[in-house]
Amino acid sequence: LGYGNKNQVLGEAVSSALLRQTQVQESAINDELAQYDSLLEAGDSELDALRERRLAQMKKASEQRNEWRELGHGTYSALGEGQHGGDVAKEFFEASKKSQRLVVHFYRPTTRMCDIFHRHLEKLASKHLETRFV
Fold it and tell me: How far is the C-alpha of 127 from the C-alpha of 106, rounded, in Å?
């Protein structure tokens, strides 16, 4: 390779390592191309089955989001609020039974930092529909 006497061995080792790496990448690309080719050659029935599976996944995800919204996910709310107040402990345990993920903020109305934390929880609640924030 013309690296000179002292660097000839090192140069050959580097070039063989590069060759092996490019062969691995080429093999991975060929495998991916073969996968795409098989999809193109697949019959309509296979594509229809793939489409049906994807539609079923999307429908299930939509139903899950609707269920979460019904449970109060997507918003940050205080327990025990309402027209007549309520038993906070009872509402807490009901919420924890219904929701798999629950973020609870125990706060004092007199603590100023709680208001800042409330604002951050409101932002997080709208971004994380899978979790209920109370």
Answer: 21
Q: What is the 3-state secondary structure (H, E, C) of the chain?
A: CCCCCCCHHHHHHHHHHHHHHHHHHHHHHHHHHHHHHHHHHCCHHHHHHHHHHHHHHHHHHHHHHHHHHHCCCCCECCCCCCCCCCCHHHHHHHHHHHCCCEECCCCCCCCHHHHHHHHHHHHHHHHCCCCEEC
What local confidence, expressed as pLDDT, does residue 4 receive? 65
Burial of 11 (0-12, 13-18, 19+ CB in 10 A): middle
CA atoms of 119 and 76, how far apart (whole Å): 9
Structure pTM? 0.56
If you search the block for the tokens 């971004």, which residue do you land on?
A: 127
